[in-house]
Write a structure and sequence with these properties.
By secondary structure, the protein is mainly alpha-helical. Helices cover 63% and strands 0% of the residues. The chain has a single domain, classed as de novo design (two linked rop proteins), CATH 1.20.1440.60.
Length: 76
């Protein structure tokens, strides 16, 4: 078991995803900073936030819900 969510490999991966998203969105037009760019960045950060939130929950159903929220959705 993990002592903190920061020890979890999946949380570390989610931080790497967020860092990559921030790098990818650096070159988007500045007029989008408070629109599209902000939305993409906030959604990337919410992955790690929901994993951390699930770690602090005591009930399995609560943990599962937050892990579902953290799951990135792929649109093809």
């Amino acid at each position: 078991m993990y002592n903190t969510f920061k020890d979890m490999p999946i949380w570390k991966s989610s931080i790497e995803i967020a860092e990559e998203i921030f790098k990818l969105t650096e070159n988007l037009p500045k007029k989008e900073d408070y629109g599209f760019t902000s939305q993409i960045r906030r959604s990337a950060l919410s992955i790690s936030a929901n994993i951390a939130e699930s770690f602090g929950r005591n009930h399995t159903s609560d943990k599962i819900n937050f892990l579902y929220y953290a799951r990135p959705v792929k649109y093809l």
